[in-house]
Structures are given as C-alpha cells and as structure tokens.
Design brief:
The protein is an alpha+beta fold. It contains six helices and six strands; from the N terminus they run αααβββββαααβ. The protein has a domain of 132 residues. Strand 1 and strand 2 form a beta hairpin. The protein binds heme C. The site of heme C has 23 residues, from helix 3.
Length: 196
C-alpha cells in the first residue's frame, strides 16, 4: 500500500469516527405510560378472574355443556327456578348444586346466589360501598346480620385490598340492572354436638 493511500485511509477512518461521535444514536422517546385503569375497569378484571360468574350467573346448556348465560349476567339464582327440597346425598357427598348452578344444598341448608346487579329492589341497588366491604370482610349478610353461607368464598375475597374491593363494587354498580328476586336462604339447624 502506498504511503498516499494509507494516509487517505487513516483520514477517512478519522472522519468516520468523528461522524460517529458527533451523531450519537438518538435515544428512543420514553414509552407512553400505560393509561391508568379506572376502578370500574379494575373491578371488571377482578370479577372476571375471581369466578363471580361461576356462581352468580345462571348456567344454561350449550353445545359444550353448561355455560354461563351472559344475558342474565350476575343476576343470581333465577326466581323462576324453584327448588323443592335438598337432594338426599350418599354419605360421601357433602353438597349439591342445582341445574342453573345457582342453588347449593349442603349441611348449611340451601343457599341461593345473590343478584349482584344494581337493580333497586332485587339486586345491590340499596347497598352502600360500606355494606359491601363489611359483607365481604366479615362474612355477614348485608354487612351486619346472619353469617353468609357456603359456598360464597368471602374468606378468600376478604383478603383483597380496600381499593380492589371498592373497584369490584364500582363495577357491579356499572352493569345492567336485572330484576330477579332471589329466594331467601334456607338455614339448616346446627348439627348435634358430640355426645348428643
Ligand atoms: C362458589 C360460588 C360463589 C362464588 C365464586 C361467588 N359467590 Fe357470592 N355468593 C354465593 C352464594 C351461595 C351466596 C348466597 C350466600 C347466602 O345466602 O348466605 C353469595 C352471596 C353473595 C353476596 C351477598 C352477601 C349477602 O350479604 O347476603 C355478595 C355481595 C356476593 N356473593 C358477591 C360475590 C362476588 C363479588 C364474587 C366474585 C368476586 C362472588 N360473590 C363469587 C356463591 C358464590
């Protein structure tokens, strides 16, 4: 290589380096912050991932077996579906669910899933956020009276944060109101204690 061409190469290299130094790679603009989830959106996410529909939305028979009837989403045990008497179960069985998956018979009696829609007379219409928080946290009907019966998983849901419980309530206020009067629970007498 001639002296001339090697000088040229060195010069070209220097120019390239200079160019590289003077033009730092542009830093990408910061990613836009994810839009904050509203309480209603958070509540919808929690309701859909905590199984509320499994018990509070009546099931109907679909092509692949029983499926939640979303036209009656979260409206509880249908008033038109009457339960005569709890089934007699073989000793190794503890509880039974009815055909809509909304009535449950067990040692506690018969429990019917509540109407969680905001209907004024038959749903959570008159409930306050405070009643809802108390019901879930303390397992008391309407926050103050009799114990909430199985299989309502309040012992699990009571571990939700205040914000999450409030979000669930906010979402339940936002869904379409469905008029459906759920029957009162049938409370079984407590089983005889030992030695009786
Ligand atoms: C495994 C079935 C099951 C699941 C899952 C379930 N529930 Fe329930 N829920 C019930 C039953 C049964 C009752 C009625 C209990 C009773 O009458 O004491 C009930 C009652 C309630 C009540 C009324 C309590 C009261 O004061 O009488 C509320 C509110 C409620 N559920 C909210 C929810 C929410 C919110 C979810 C989801 C995060 C949920 N439930 C998931 C079965 C379930």
């Amino acid at each position: 290589m001639s002296k001339f061409s090697s000088t040229l190469l060195a010069a070209a290299g220097g120019i390239l380096m200079l160019a590289a130094c003077s033009q730092p790679a542009p830093t990408p603009p910061p990613a836009p912050a994810a839009p904050a989830q509203s309480p209603v959106e958070r509540g919808q996410y929690l309701v859909n991932t905590s199984g509320c529909h499994d018990c509070h939305t009546p099931f109907k028979m679909g092509p692949n077996g029983p499926e939640p009837d979303m036209a009656r989403a979260l409206s509880g045990h249908p008033e038109s579906v009457k339960i005569s008497a709890p089934p007699k179960l073989p000793a190794e069985w503890m509880f039974a669910g009815n055909v809509t998956g909304t009535a449950w018979a067990g040692p506690w009696g018969i429990s019917y899933t509540a109407n969680l829609t905001p209907d004024q007379n038959t749903g959570l219409g008159i409930w306050t956020e405070d009643m809802f928080m108390k019901a879930i946290r303390e397992g008391k009907h309407m926050g103050t009276s009799r114990p909430i019966l199985p299989p309502m998983p309040w012992p699990a849901y009571k571990n939700m944060t205040d914000d999450d419980l409030k979000a669930v309530f906010a979402y339940l206020r936002s869904i379409p109101a469905i008029s459906n009067r759920v029957p009162d629970a049938v409370i079984a007498p407590p089983p005889p204690g030992p030695g009786k």
